[in-house]
User: What shape does this take?
Amino acid sequence: MNILVLNLPFPRKIIRRYSCSYYSNGFLYLPQELLRLATIIKQNNTGNTFFIDAIAENRSVKDIIKFVKNNHIEIIFTLLSLDFIDNDLKIVNKIKQSTSVPIVSISYLASLFRNQFQHLDVVLDKFFEQKTYFALKNSSSIDDLINSLKETEGKTFDFNPNLINQVDRSFINPKNYQEVFCRGKTAFLYFGFGCPYKCNYCISSYDYKNYTLRKKEFIFDELEQLYKEGYKNIRVLDDNSTINKEFLKELDIFLKEKKIFLNFYGLSRISLIDKEMVEILKDVGFKRIYLGLETLNQKMQEYYEKNIEVNLTILREKIRLLKSNGIETGLWMLFHPLKQTKNELYSSIKELSYLKADLVNLSILVPYPGTKLFDLEKENINYSLNPFISEFKTNYNCDKIERMFYVRYYLRPLNALRIMKFVLKYPIKSINLFFSLFKNPIDPRKDFI
Ligand code: SF4
Assistant: This one.
């Protein structure tokens, strides 16, 4: 079978992941879910498997249609984003109308509301890896494959992150992908999937509420191979790179034994940062950790069921510890337009500055259907599925508030000095990021930094 795995084109650079989507400016992540899927397909398909990342390769819809026709593609697998789903659906329709090739859509939203996406040929949910693997094993023709995939709709599978040892990077050009403020060849990978915490606004990676680590041998082999291939940086895509302390310790021993030196970047919860964890992170080679703090208001911490203790002295000490061990810190903050006022947000800047993080990022909270927060706030949300809108009913101009937050935060002398360090080291990326804050005043930014 001639199968194409496609990251759909889009007018701007965006990142699509199963559980989130955002604009990217000055950086670009690999569509790792699609690359994992392409690898699974290639290993189980007797025909040709193609992979196109139309975002990274700047390919237009026209290009894609031409490619599909020229290469006699028989089926396309793609991932629909959350925030940009309307645009993605238009592109899917265009490709479908021009080529008549069936399209399998992996989508959090469409799988949640399958009845309202009847026009899509097949919709796959978070079990898309297992379902595709299972269907390929049981199919000898495209019709078989489609029927088999359709039969899996609505069914639950056991999640197995080890259907492949590692992704097939021959599909991609690594030069197309970069971490924020980072130089050198960068690879993206998951140690594991899902998150055991229960923050009520969050759809964790692959929407799994338990954390499942890949086979350690697979991760170790992959890192060894990447190092031999000249990769310098690893962006760990886990929601939380610090969930499994024992694994990180073993990873450290492995890297030391093999004399592998890589720079790691990833996310964590600040509550998991302590002296021992910082030492492990330093030994492994972490150079930057993004910390989801979200709010300095203890009541809001409880409201989000995040439950991080807001003690500024302790939080500042954790950040100091990381920085004194050569690990940069980025703080992720949220603004709830109904539960916080803009004045509260702006006055929190002083406390936030006291923490001395290298980077601070603010997002306006989006209440996504399927989350506990969405159910809690139903009455207060402007919601429609088609077109997709899910935002709090507020008179605030949230985008303006977000921009003003950045201006006020980064204009404080010490914060400005910290950001200058990045600007001097990465001038072009910084300019891109700076202009992205102001470039699309009508568009919600839905991005970070
Ligand atoms: S810790 Fe992070 S990934 Fe886990 S549920 Fe909370 S916000 Fe989501």
